[in-house]
Design brief:
CATH topology: Rossmann fold
CATH architecture: 3-Layer(aba) Sandwich
Organism: Streptomyces cirratus
Strand content: 15-25%
Helix content: 25-40%
Number of strands: 8
Shape: globular
Bound molecules: S-adenosylmethionine
Distance between the termini: 17 Å
Order of helices and strands: HHEHEHEHEHEHEHEHE
CATH superfamily: Vaccinia Virus protein VP39
InterPro entries: SAM-dependent_MTases_sf (IPR029063), tRNA_(Gua-N-7)_MeTrfase_Trmb (IPR003358), tRNA_methyltr_TrmB_bact (IPR055361)
Largest sheet: 8 strands, mixed
Strand order of the largest sheet: 1-4-3-2-5-6-8-7
Protein name: tRNA (guanine-N(7)-)-methyltransferase
Family: Belongs to the class I-like SAM-binding methyltransferase superfamily. TrmB family.
Number of helices: 9
Radius of gyration: 18 Å
Enzyme class: transferase
Number of domains: 1
């Protein structure tokens, strides 16, 4: 596995070598909502690793803040990197799909409502979205959604057992259009190496993007990866499956005239 995904093990108490002098700003270390998500619980800011997201402090509405305080203890998961999760216990035995980067969570809530027989572990670092998804899940009486706070890489690498996922969804990951930022893109060979170990054989990795060059990159690296095979016999992009609702980010892309591409690849048995 590449250096970018496999640095020093995460530890909130022991910063990675070379980062000893780093003092995180207060907003990265102080809880914003009592009983809500812990700030950077895995201490990933101490890791010397290129991240696919930009840490930022975003405005949280009163409703989102209330939802975080009230519901996090029941439905939230802090990605602390210190334990392996029993997904069967967490989701009452349902098959579990991981969604990375759910944004504001509207599409996630819709998919959970439409398919109560599947558990969705939804991960993002975006606090307003976490509050929004919790509120949507409560309003919809959804018991098959859990909201995780932190870096999906640490969740996959440290906290999910091998072959444990029935699927992985990455909808409209940050496109990082500038050439010097391409290394931040999530869908890369190293990420696929890791994802392949956590997906069960036969499980589907479903990606979608409205950024043409990123779509081409996704198709190239997925096609080349020995542990994934395209569900499309023609080896190309897939039509949007009915179960994937229009996402917020997708809507913004369509408004700009972007073309959306879906990719559905199966983890092979090997
Ligand atoms: C462009 S938004 C798309 C959101 C949503 N899927 C949509 O289509 O509206 C990408 C999201 O991925 C999240 N993200 C990026 N890298 C991540 C990571 N490594 N772990 C968790 N979330 C991540 C960002 O915080 C952001 O909310």
């Amino acid at each position: 596995m590449s250096e970018s995904l496999n640095p020093q093990p995460p530890s909130a108490s022991a910063p990675a070598e070379g980062a000893a002098s780093y003092t995180p700003p207060k907003w990265r270390t102080e809880p914003r909502f009592p009983d809500g998500p812990a700030p950077d619980p895995a201490g990933s800011h101490h890791e010397r690793r290129i991240r696919s997201f930009q840490p930022r402090r975003s405005r949280v509405t009163t409703g989102q803040g209330e939802a975080l305080k009230r519901l996090w203890g029941t439905w939230g998961l802090d990605i602390d990197g210190h334990r392996v999760i029993d997904l069967k216990a967490m989701f009452d035995g349902l098959p579990v799909v991981l969604e990375i980067g759910f944004g504001m969570g509207e599409a996630t809530a819709q998919m959970a409502a439409a398919d109560p027989g599947t558990g969705i572990l939804a991960v993002d670092v975006h606090t307003p979205g976490q509050g929004n998804l919790l509120a949507l899940a409560e309003r919809g009486g959804l018991t098959n959604v859990r909201v995780a706070n932190g870096d999906a890489i640490i969740l996959l690498r440290e906290m999910l057992p091998p072959d444990s996922l029935a699927g992985l969804r990455v909808y409209f990951p940050d496109p990082w259009p500038k050439a010097r930022h391409h290394k931040r893109r999530l869908i890369q060979p190293e990420f696929l190496d890791l994802a392949a170990t956590r997906l069960a054989p036969g499980a589907i990795l479903h990606c979608a993007t409205d950024w043409e060059p990123y779509a081409e990159q996704m198709l190239e690296v997925l096609t080349a990866h020995p542990r994934f095979e395209n569900t499309r016999a023609d080896g190309g992009f897939a039509p949007r499956p009915d179960f994937r609702p229009l996402t917020r980010f997708e809507g913004q892309g369509l408004d700009k005239g972007h073309v959306v591409h879906d990719l559905l690849f199966r983890r092979t048995d090997s």
